[in-house]
Structures are given as C-alpha cells and as structure tokens.
Amino acid sequence: MKPPRQRAESGRLGTLTALYVTQYLGIGFITVGLTAILRDGGTSLDTLALLQAIGLIWPVKFLWAPLLDRYGSRRHGHYRSWLLVLQSGLVLALLALLPFPRPAEQLGPIVAICAVYVLLSATQDVAADAVAVRLLSTRARGTGNGIQVAASYLGNLLGGGACVIVYDRYGWAAAILLLAALTAVGLVVVWRFREPPRTDRVPGVGSAYRALWSAFGQPGCRWWTFVVVPLVYVGSGAAYALVTPALVDAGWSLARIGVVTGVVISVPAIVAGLVAGAGIGRSSRSAVLVFGGALLTLSVVLLLPLLRGDAPLTGTVVALSCFMAAYTVLNVVVYTVNMDYSRPATGGSDFTLFSSFGLICSFVAASLGLAAAGQVGYPAVGVGSAVLVAAGVLAGIRHQRRYGHQRRGDGAPATIPGTGPVPPPDAAREAAGSRA
C-alpha cells in the first residue's frame, strides 16, 4: 500500500490527466475532425484557414492569466472555482453545436461557438497549469508534464479521430454528445478535487501583471527562454512543417495522410510523453533532453527519403513515428523546466507566459521552414533543423549545469513584486500536508 504522500501525488496526477485530456478533446475535434467534416461538405480552403486561425487565441492567453492568479474563491478553492466554471463552459459550448447538424451550411454560428470554446479551453489550461505548479513536487514535474503532452495527443486522437468515426456512422448529434460526455468527465473530477487553502494570493491586479514580467528575472530564465527554447522549437517546428507538403508531393492521398499523421503516429507520441516524464523523474532534465535531441537527429536521417520525394509506406511511418516521439520528448523537457521557473503565487501566469512564447516560436518556425524549403529544398531544411535542435540541446545542457540546482523547490524562495518572499513549492506542499 502506498504511503499517504504518494497516494496524494497520484491523485493530483489523476486530476491533471482528466483536465488535460478533456481540454484537448474539443480542440482536436475543431482542428482535425470539424475541418474534415466541413471540407467534405464543400467548404473552401480559405474558410477552413479562418477556422484554424481561432487557435491563435492560445498563444495570447498570458494576457489574462494574471487575473486567474489574482482572483479566486477562498471557500471553493482558488483555482478549483475557476475550473468548475470553465469545465462547465466547455461542456455547454459543445452542446451549443447540437442545433447545427449541417455545419458547412451554418458556418457563422459554428465558427463563433468554436471561438468561445477555444477561449474557454485556453483559460482552463491556465488554471490547470497553476494547479500543477502548486501541487506537483519537483520530482513529479516530469511525470506531470509528460502526462500533459501525452494528453494533448490523446485528446486530439479522440476528438479528431474517434468522433469523426462516430459522425460518419451515427451522425452529428451522436458525435457532439460523445464529445460533451467525455468532457463532462473532467467536470466530475474537478468537483471531487479538494484544493489546499491558498495563503500567497497576489495583493492586486497591478502586482499580478508586474509579476508576469518579473518571471524573466530569475537566474538563468532568460537564457532558457530566449536561447534554448527558440533553438529547440524553431528547429523541430520547421522540420515538422515539411511533413504534410512533402507527403503530398510524394503522391500520398489526403485520406492516407490524415490517417497516418492524425492517428497512427499519435500512439508513439503518447507513449514517448509518458516515458519522457518518468525518465525526468528518475534521471535528469539534461539526460532526457540529450535523448530527445539524438532521437530527433535520427528521425531526420530516416525522413531524408521522404524529403527527397520517395515515401514508401512502412519506412515513412517509422520515420514519422520516430520524429513525433522525439518532438514529444523535447516538449516534455521544455515544459518541465518552464514549470521549474513558475512561482507558486503566480504559477498560472508564469507557466502560461513561458509556454506561450514556445507556441509563438512554433508558429514562426512553420513559416520559416516552408519558406526556406521553397528556396533550398526539403532535405536542406531538414538537416538545418537537426542542427538547430542540436545547438538547443547543447545550450540546454549548459543551462542545467549552471542553473539546474536553483530550480524552484531546490533553491531560495522566489519574490513577487509587492508580496515579499514566497516559499518554494515543495515547502508549500509540506505545509499543506494531507489537505491536497
């Protein structure tokens, strides 16, 4: 039988798993499933691009993240009160799609509802990340972020894959009701969740926003955020942007591309996320970072036939699976170090700020990768991407050697403008005891 502390940690991880999976269910449906349904109904590519643009809400969620850190119910739990409202909103937004069984003919309300859903989902992510920052021990952060990254793929797999199959066989209402029912599971989990009382609330909105920018003042934070993260994300993101156009150029059908990139390679990505998270807990952030970089280099080598225009099914699936596994491992390490730099009093704001910057780097990388491929070709961009990731790994190793021992929970207390010292998260958890 597990000791009480381990049982509490397992319960926290279970809660976070439900939150992260359910937040991505609708996102997967909107970006993959609904896109396919609309295209099948004759919707133009320009209109589909507008639907995809709704996702730009996610990178700017740091603009309102400080409000979640500042305001929250003392009676019902600071972040739990937000999660109850937001998770309910996700379910209601999905149910609001029910009256529109022919989405291709009713685009106006469909796009509006989807925009509301993405806004709610992005805000729910802020609250879920804040809970993770406050309740996960330093050792469990790798596992927690492995679950977060794996959950994104699982949510996309269910929302973008399973729900489309249900739609094809049973219709629009059945697919939407399945999405809403799965999302409601997260609401049940939040209802049962008991958040420890909070004693380090930021005193005002102004302090909350000043704290947002002071996060970069922590030792080594600027080096990690503005050197390591861009190198890793631009390198891997530029390579990933080549995959779909290279498959099209190699003669693959859209149906095959959808199945392989949306379903098949999601499975190794889910496994890689969980394995990477466990590996960080058992070894170190640097070791898993090196593994992810080496795996990505290998995957680029395996992808060279595709990038040259030759894409046999088995070899291409293996190469893409390897690439997605590597990309996932790197993501888990980046998220874990981001959480190391996230302070308990402003966990939602800090983690959101760091992850939003990573998302922006990924968006930029996609454009740069495709533009460069038009000039020098797919293979050159693929090799260049591997070089950038290797540089990011080396910079990350240097960062961890110099600053890794100062991770939150291991070093001195953080300071938030206007609040004074804030105890490290591990100390705060000890004070909370079994109330978590």
Biggest sheet, strands in spatial order? 1-2
Radius of gyration: 21 Å
Give the total of beta strands.
Answer: 2
Structure class: mainly alpha
Average pLDDT rating: 85
Strand content: under 5%
Give the helices and strands as they follow along the chain.
HHHHHHHHHHHHHHHHEEH
Uncertain segments are 408-414, 417-436
The total of helices stands at 17
Give a written overview of the molecule.
With 436 residues, the chain is mostly helical. 76% of the residues lie in helices and 1% in strands. The protein has a two-stranded antiparallel sheet with strand order 1-2. Residues 408-414 and 417-436 have low confidence and may be disordered. This is MFS transporter.
In short:
This protein is an all-alpha fold and about 425 residues long. The chain has helices at about 5-40, 45-55, 65-70, 80-95, 105-135, 140-170, 170-190, 205-215, 220-240, 245-250, 255-265, 265-280, 285-305, 315-340, 345-375, 380-405, 425-430; strands at about 415, 420. A hairpin with a 3-residue loop joins strand 1 (about 415) and strand 2.
